[in-house]
Design a protein that fits this description.
single chain; mainly alpha; Non-ribosomal Peptide Synthetase Peptidyl Carrier Protein, Chain A; 55% helix
Amino acid sequence: MREDILALVYSAMDEVDPLGADGRPLEKNPDVRLLGGEGVDSLTFVNLVVAIEEQIHAKFGKSVVLVDEEHLAHQEHPFRTVGTMAEYVEMVIGKS
């Protein structure tokens, strides 16, 4: 299932076409930073999350909310990298 989720996240990245802090397109790689340092700006992050939520709805028929205050408040939030985002998406889909 992890590969399917990564493909879903990559598809959302294609929709949003996110740029990193250096102005270059984000690489489709689980280790690529999303938030902090070399990651994307906040508006791009929001657009990416919305695109992922839409991909989840289209593929699995589930409506989910990926971002909430509880997860953003943790130092080790699930939005650090593409890989941690994919792990989190897999967990959320499994719960709903």
